[in-house]
Amino acid sequence: MQTDFLVIGSGIAGLTYALKVAEACPDQTVTILTKTQSDETNTKYAQGGIAGVMDFDKDSFAKHIEDTLIAGDGLCNKKIVEIVVKEGVERIEEIIEWGANFDKESDGDFKLGKEGGHSESRILHHKDVTGKEMERALLEAIGQKPNIKLLNHCFVVDIITQHHLGYLITKSTVDVECYGVYVLNLGTNKVEKILAKITMLASGGNGQVYRSTTNPAIATGDGVAMVYRAKGRIENMEFIQFHPTALYETGIRGHNFLITEAVRGDGGILRNHAGEAFMERYDERKDLAPRDIVARAIDNEMKIAGTEHVFLDCRHFSKEKFVEHFPNIYEKCLSIGIDISKNLIPVTPAAHYSCGGIKTDEYGRTSIKNLYAAGECASTGLHGANRLASNSLLEAMVFAHRAYTDSVKDFNFRKNEPFGGNLVGDWKTDGTNAPKEMILITQSVKELKLLMSDYVGIVRNNERLNRAMKRLDLLYVETEALYQKTVVSPQLCELRNMITVAYLIVKSAEFRHESRGLHFNTDYPGKLPMIQNIIL
Fold it and tell me: Would you list the domain boundaries of the chain?
């Protein structure tokens, strides 16, 4: 198969990019690949909203920029922050034109929420299912473009480069090019080759590396792992954001229900098992401190008390207003016997967002030619050491737009050239068999999640990181041996990708000899005066 533009992932970054490219190039083909259903993305589960300066009487670009820089703890690229904040408003207006609905006051103005780290109310939202609403609008717009082909149940195995033509490629190799991908078609159960002139990676996050995460099961870091294997540059993987308030349910692991930060923005109070409102002991901003501070505070309270959760107190809320603003959360809590007007909500931190990822420039270009990246899989320089709440959807749209402008220009310059990679062979399955026991894969996944959660969580130290790396080495050797002798499957590929991502997180954490933002190492509790990015 050949396509002019190939998009991997159907979240807000991938769909925004595909829609814009399809409009600009109506005679060219745009193909979107997604490994399950088209709407099963991290975007769908984004509750809180999207940050943007909409009320210039009270807010300003300067305030939003400053809030982002403070949250990023010195590691943000200021130029990128200014680009996202200033261009973001236009992108928000664009998705509204495409049909996304955000909550409004009775006078027609947008209802603007406030979340941790923000100095003003600037969060647009659609009740507590903002991402789902934006995903709906984009998918409807995509469906109206005849030159867009959306293929579900297609698992991308690897990026095709000169490596597949027999060339030796290392990190120092210049002009590595992306020719397309090998993809496992789950309908035919065969690995197929797709060639593309431009490839956009919008493959999402990697929360499934941890035992408890707000991410869906698909978030296994596939894009980051594929780019690393293709010798592309990966940056700042140690900065894994743990959302402070995931709903704690006994026995639930793998996908925890999120209690959006907007609940604390509306006045929710964190309490420990003694009933104390403890955040005032950790930060003057109390419950509205940035996420890294709140997550570490909760982690400390849990360790002091020997408990697996703390509580979020919403009993003082107007029940009617809570149901109006957070209907999804209200129904979920009620389904497990929690009436928010009478009961405290048990919450615990869970892996939520990767601030690092595939290193990109201001137009979403990666270190591999013809390959762009946007959304959570990319490291643009916006988030630094800690993401400011509700900046991620904004970032995804801004860089999808910037990648579109650059890639269309590049495509038009060389659209008459033949597809690269025509000489690349088909996927070979000689000498491979079906796996005899799935336990070899499922047990390794459990081990991986356990060691990452216990050794590379909210608080780290050198001994834990060293132990994690030793165990990852063993898992890597075992999994690669299995990969070489068995046919590929989504489960095996995801395990392989998660091991790679876990290695990148641990290796980056070992290189950072300080505590900054989301990375807190008790052996290096202070900050280094020299601020640096960790690039692998």
Answer: 2-238+355-414, 247-349, 439-521
